[in-house]
Amino acid sequence: MTKRGALQKLWCATQKELDVHIARWLINDGRPYNTVVTEDFRNLIHRATGNLDGTILSAKTYNIILEALFARFCAFVEQLLKDDGKKGIVGTSACYIDKFWRFRNMALLVTVYNSSHASVKVKSLTTSRIETLYGLDIEPMVQFTMSDTTPSARKISKLFEDSIPTDCSMHVLNLCLLYGLGMRENTETVYALDAETQTPKKERRVCTVGGPFPRGAALIKKIRALNNYFNTPQRVNRLTETQRYYGLPELSTIVDCDTRVASTVSLFQRTIINYAAFKAYFEQCATYDDPQVSRKLDFADWRLLVEMEAVTESLAELARIEVQRSNQVASELIVLLKFAIDRLGADSYNIYDMDALRSPKTNEKTLPRRSIHLSALSAEGQICVARIKGQVEKRLPTLTAESVAILLLDPRTKFTVESLVRPAARDDTDADSDNTDAVIADGKQLLRCAHQELSTVRR
Fold it and tell me: Which domain of life is it from (predicted)?
């Protein structure tokens, strides 16, 4: 028998019991019956700590402390990033596929480097540090080098002479979307004869494939302004009441949309779903509302919006979801790119039906679409198609020797290589077929050479 109030040293809480009670403590916080104030919970803490005066904070207080500490951490990181003495970081990782055809990603190096950004020095730092840390000379082992699309990063990847430089697929997809949506233009400097002075005059003009598309960028600004308008609880509540009253989907607006280009297409989709709610909201404005926000978008703008969404949707979905999967392998990505490019090259597109009936369960996947021929698109919609097709043909070619080698390595695609790399041409000629056969032969030869090099290293 132990005295009343004395610790029972023969009993101790197991880790499992502690986990269960801590979970109960977190769940019950703020409810009428809180685990923290019960006698059993205090007894558990006394036994676990060996201290009769041991106490534990309520979950609410604990979370407040965590939030305050996290705010201090964010402020500290922000200060570090803004300071003149900010640090430069060089990072390297290795990706490979194991014998069970599982994708592996291994971080090799993260080091502070504030010296010269010359590509030769950065490459030398990477190889020497990895050799020091792991005893590995990676230069003769690297088969593919993937980098950002910036010129400096690409230059470093090209210094590994025996490897095949490859652009990061996510960045390439976002670049295609940037140009397709009109958010970026290629320009060139030309000299034109001035009509008045008859002297050469230097001018800058847009030379983007497909032609200039200023209306695309202007439309994106209008759509963002419309969604950002609902940034106060008062407007959000009235929009929700409007959606509920008319039986519309209760989907919130996307305020301060992510700057990633693929997220802009998600903004398009959510805005189209909420079209009926916006229309009903601004038909009867409250005293605090500004009807001009809605009037800036006319019928032509809404039509162009659904056309741009239909054109860019397949590439945006790849950039948002598939490309960013941690276990995504190159062969699967090539297949997905092939399907997306084929959809982009079709003669018709499936656009959202703006006037379709909506229910509370309607979302981006279930809102009806209708097929529209390429020739029936608006002039701006056809410019969007031409621009994104031009970028895809330039930056995402599936008919390359490297793609063939990757597909041949995957047992799931090795027997369908020809169909997966053949471009989606409307008029399939003998010349196109001969070109496809030649590239497949180059891919096979590339694979043979790599296998011979590997066999030589093993010997």
Answer: Eukaryota
Distance CA 180, CA 283 (A): 33
The answer to whether 353 touches 370, Cβ cutoff 8 Å, is yes
User: What's the farthest any 2 CA atoms get from each other in the chain?
Assistant: 112
- The residue among 318, 325, 320 whose CA lies nearest residue 267 is 320
Contacting residues for 401 by C-beta, under 8 A, at least 6 apart: 439, 442, 443, 445, 446
Q: Where are the beta strands (DSSP E) in 88-199?
A: 89-97, 103-112, 144-147, 164-167, 187-193
Amino acid at 41: F
SS3 assignment, position 136: coil
The count of C-alpha atoms lying within 13 angstroms of the C-alpha of 310, restricted to the half-sphere facing its C-beta, is: 29
* One-letter identity of residue 360: P
**Distances in Å between the alpha carbon of 430 and those of 275, 403, 425, 434, 435?**
49, 22, 12, 6, 9
Burial of 338 (0-12, 13-18, 19+ CB in 10 A): buried
Kindly tell me if the per-residue pLDDT of 276 is higher than 50: yes
Tokens of 386: 């031409």
DSSP class of residue 135 equals -
Q: How far apart are alpha carbons 360 and 248 in whole angstroms?
A: 5
**Residue 8: predicted pLDDT:** 47
Give which of 185, 254, 182, 186 is closest to 218, Cα–Cα.
Answer: 182
Pick the closest to residue 312 from 257, 362, 255, 263 (CA basis): 263
Do the Cβ atoms of 140 and 457 come closer than 8 Å?
Answer: yes
Distance CA 261, CA 316 (A): 8
Q: Judge contact between 403 and 414, C-beta under 8 A.
A: no
Beta bridge partners of 369: 352
- In tens, the pLDDT along 51-75 reads 777 666 666 676 777 788 888 887 7
What span, in angstroms and rounded, lies between the C-alpha atoms of 364 and 396? 27
* Per-domain residue ranges of the chain: 20-82, 89-167, 169-396, 397-459
CB atoms within 10 A of CB 416: 11
Burial 233-255, CB ≥16 within 10 A → b, else e: eebeebbbebbeeeebbebebbe
pLDDT in tens, 413-439: 888 888 888 776 554 556 667 777 888
Place of tokens 């439309």: 219
Alpha-carbon span 365 to 183, nearest angstrom: 26
Closest CA to 172 of 40, 52, 334: 334
Q: pTM for the whole thing? A: 0.66
DSSP-derived 3-state class of residue 346: coil
Q: DSSP assignment, residue 376?
A: G
